Amino acid sequence: MSTLTTSPPGFTKGKEFWVDVEVPYTKIEQKWDWKYKHRLHQHINNGRLQKRVLSIYFKSMGRTDFAHEREEALNQIEEYDKEWAVNLCCQFEFSTGVSEDTVVEFAKKAKSDIVAIGLEEEYEKNIGSGDSNPNKDGLVALCQLANPDILRQMLVFSRVASRYPKTVYKRESGGTPTFKQWNQLIKTLSENSVEDYGIWYQFEHDGGRYLAIEQEDRDGVERQVGTNIEEEPANLILLHFDGQYLDVYTDTRKSANLSQTGINKDISGKDYEEDRNPVTSDEVADFTANITDKDKERQEDDLDLDYILTDIHVSRTTLPNNPEVKLSSEGGVGKAVAELSNLNYDLLSDPKNIEKLKIRYEGYKFTVTNAKRRTGSGDTYRELVYGCHAGTSLREEFEELMTQEFGISIKYQSSS
């Protein structure tokens, strides 16, 4: 086992870094002897803390005599430097809140940094190949040691990938904003809040640009995600620019609208706009009837369609006492709707009562909602909007599919 070419920069990181990426460093340090040290040893017992993770630390110690037993190896790391053992625990706490797919994706992005400090062998062990699965704990450890900022990217990307945006804006031209074009955005947010805002982190990934904005006076706040929640989270405003689209992830619609206002004041070219896409009752009725019939035909004739109508929710029906009805089946619901209609129970008789459809496409569920909207002047209109966890390119494919198949235009927006 060779020694490192340079000391990993991640070992210089302490409380401020870990708290910033939502790991409760102070708690881990204060409760080390009776809680968190024990938790690491539990990870040995349950098989999560593997030799390929521990070997990263032994190589960093310049040790070639890797302990045979993992318990002994962990004890030796703590004896060498307790802060290293705490750092390892922090890496595990962070890893718990991020998916394996996200960790693998960003570890590949950080490979050159990992190789540069002499941990290429450990990277190959943990990335997985052949019959070996990726080890996300080891990959998080390697990324944090070689390039700590990669953890910030993982955190932002994980939040974006795991929930619906509050709203989505689009424009026809102007390109993706540069890294320097945020002064007016920060000013707009700060002027309309009792808090001051600042840029927490921004980066490019897979052709898109991500911007994370936070309240600047969150001293002592330990933000947590997933199963790691131990303190009240501080709000992050997350912006994702991808082609013509701007996805905004906030806790409130007001913050999303303020973000759009600030961006439009900063950016040259055509402003981002929240496009209205009104539909008539007849269009809603035709779309629902057509996709239901198509799904029935798929079930009966074994058609090879790209999509399946898996759910339908109707708020009021012609059944006795006019109950709401929710049909759900991974195999499709078109045939069930038709059979009820043959019994004179037409679930689709009034398009205003059609609340929601779920369509499975390319492994994702697209939830289409018949949404009632109100303009600034108080007028009302309806839109067919949909939410999903798919990325921009797959969303565009789905929109195009719905237009080609049914002549309907649907709009992507949070359904939460």
Describe the structure in your own words.
The protein is of the alpha+beta class. It has 3 domains: 9-158, no CATH class; 167-266; 281-412, no CATH class. 43% of the residues lie in helices and 18% in strands. Helix 3 packs across helix 6, helix 7 runs parallel beside helix 10 and helix 14 packs across helix 15 (334-342). Residues 218-234 have low confidence and may be disordered.
Secondary-structure element order, N to C: HHHHHHHHHHHEHEEEEHHEEHEEEHE
Please tell me how large the radius of gyration is: 26 Å
Mean pLDDT: 86
Count the domains: 3
Spatial strand sequence of the major β-sheet = 7-6-8-9-10-11
Cα end-to-end separation:
51 Å
Given the structure, what is the number of helices?
16
Low-pLDDT windows of residues: 218-234
The strand count comes to: 11
Largest sheet: 6 strands, mixed
Query: What structural class do the secondary elements suggest?
Result: alpha+beta
What would you say about this model in short?
This protein has 416 residues and is an alpha+beta fold. It has helices at residues 15-20, 25-30, 32-45, 51-60, 70-80, 82-96, 100-109, 111-116, 120-127, 136-146, 149-161, 183-191, 253-266, 281-301, 334-342, 392-406, and strands at 167-170, 197-205, 208-215, 236-242, 245-249, 307-314, 325-328, 354-361, 364-374, 380-387, 411-412. It has three domains: 9-158, no CATH class; 167-266; 281-412, no CATH class.
Tag the structure with descriptive keywords.
5-stranded antiparallel sheet, 6-stranded mixed sheet, 11 strands, 43% helix, 416 residues, 16 helices, alpha+beta
